[in-house]
Amino acid sequence: MIRLHHLNQSRSLRTLWLLEELGIAYEITSHQRDAKTHLAPDSLKAVHPLGKSPVIEMDGQLYSESGAITELLIERFAPERLRPAIDSSDYGYYLQWIHFAESSLMLPLLLELFTKKAGVADNEFLDGYIGAEKHRLLSYLNDEVEGKSFIVGNRLSGADFMLSFDLIMLAKREALEDYPHIKQYALQLTSLDSYQRSMRLEANYDQSI
Ligand SMILES: N[C@@H](CCC(=O)N[C@@H](CS)C(=O)NCC(=O)O)C(=O)O
């Protein structure tokens, strides 16, 4: 049995969508962000020392890190359907985009969020760094998804599940307007049945809305 420890409005959405796409049996334990701090509750710290989501329980083990969870679930349940063959050139790009989503692109997105929350406005260095970095990364992604429905090999893969949460963050900030190919790519992903199901589940579990 697989159990997803899901935190509302979090990277756990990547795993929720993937589990829906895999169509395997799983259960959800829902955790709610603190209304003021937006941090995870103690219930999540009781599950895993980091207290961050997603966390999955599988075969009596506990796994964190959405990228690792994405790869693990795909290797176990859909290696042929949701990742390129290991001996193909697409495989390297598959890994590249999985890591891009949680490392390169997440840094400026989180910095932007935290500086706003902390009320650090008009800091020349930070604003300049965040703006330039975000634009460079999004321009690259925009060029790479031009005319594509999926990021790698034009078929759904783990890289799309990983990028989907970055796209949610960007859409919330209305940042997709300047990147038409990313916007088109996001529209394509969000129209998939499994994605829609995962969003309905999120809406059911998210007590903040
Ligand atoms: N690199 C980790 C990051 C996990 C993470 O920071 N999750 C956030 C939600 S998006 C979280 O649980 N934050 C709550 C907290 O830190 O209290 C991953 O990809 O899973």
Describe, in plain words, how this protein is organized in 3D.
The chain is of the alpha+beta class and 209 residues long. It has helices at residues 12-22, 42-45, 66-77, 79-82, 89-102, 106-117, 124-144, 158-172, 180-190, 193-205; strands spanning 2-7, 26-31, 55-58, 61-64. Strands 2-1-3-4 form a four-stranded mixed sheet, with helices on one face. A hairpin with a 2-residue loop joins strand 3 and strand 4. Helix 1 (12-22) runs parallel beside helix 3 (66-77), helix 1 packs across helix 10 and helix 5 runs parallel beside helix 8. The chain starts with a strand and ends with a helix. The model has no long low-confidence stretch (mean pLDDT 96). Bound molecules: glutathione. Residues 7, 10-11, 39-40, 51-54, 65-67, 102 line the site of glutathione.
Radius of gyration: 17 Å
Bound molecules: glutathione
Name the structural class: alpha+beta
Query: Main beta sheet: strand number and arrangement?
Result: 4 strands, mixed
Q: Strand share of the residues? A: 5-15%
First CA to last CA: what distance?
Answer: 30 Å
The stretches of 5 or more residues where confidence is low (pLDDT under 50) are none
Order of helices and strands: EHEHEEHHHHHHHH
Proportion of residues in helical segments: 55-70%
Gist?
This protein has helices at 12-22, 42-45, 66-77, 79-82, 89-102, 106-117, 124-144, 158-172, 180-190, 193-205; strands at 2-7, 26-31, 55-58, 61-64.
How is this fold's topology laid out?
Blueprint: E1 2-7, H1 12-22, E2 26-31, H2 42-45, E3 55-58, E4 61-64, H3 66-77, H4 79-82, H5 89-102, H6 106-117, H7 124-144, H8 158-172, H9 180-190, H10 193-205
